[in-house]
Write a structure and sequence with these properties.
Layout: H1 15-28, H2 41-52, H3 54-73, H4 82-87, H5 94-101
């Protein structure tokens, strides 16, 4: 389970949580009565979170979802079209490139001529 040794020989990242959980079990339970183990549920949750990062991952996914909802609710006014992004002067589309970049001078690409 938690040996206490990390990749570089020191203590692993979750070993303090394991020690806290083990100390809780030692203090709150004995060989005849294990009902005190219920008091150790928060320590157990902390240890599992350290191992698997499920709460952290769920929180990050929810933050990304909220960010995407906010972005879709207020789209950018000057966002370029998909076609304008694709050609940018590389495929002899100088007019589109000037429109996207807002350039008034002619662009001599020299590609494909």
């Amino acid at each position: 389970m938690a040996s206490g040794f990390g990749l570089n020989g020191g203590p692993s990242r979750c070993f303090p949580f394991w020690q806290e959980l083990l100390a809780c079990y030692v203090v709150n339970t004995n060989s005849e009565d294990i009902s005190g183990a219920k008091k150790c549920v928060p320590a157990l949750e902390d240890y599992y979170e350290c191992l698997h990062h499920r709460k952290e991952r769920a929180r990050a996914v929810e933050m990304q979802r909220a960010y995407r909802r906010a972005e879709s609710a207020h789209p950018r006014e000057s966002a370029p079209r998909a076609g304008a992004i694709r050609n940018l002067g590389l495929l002899d589309k100088d007019e589109d490139t000037k429109e996207v970049l807002g350039v008034n001078r002619s662009i001599d690409s020299g590609i494909g001529k």
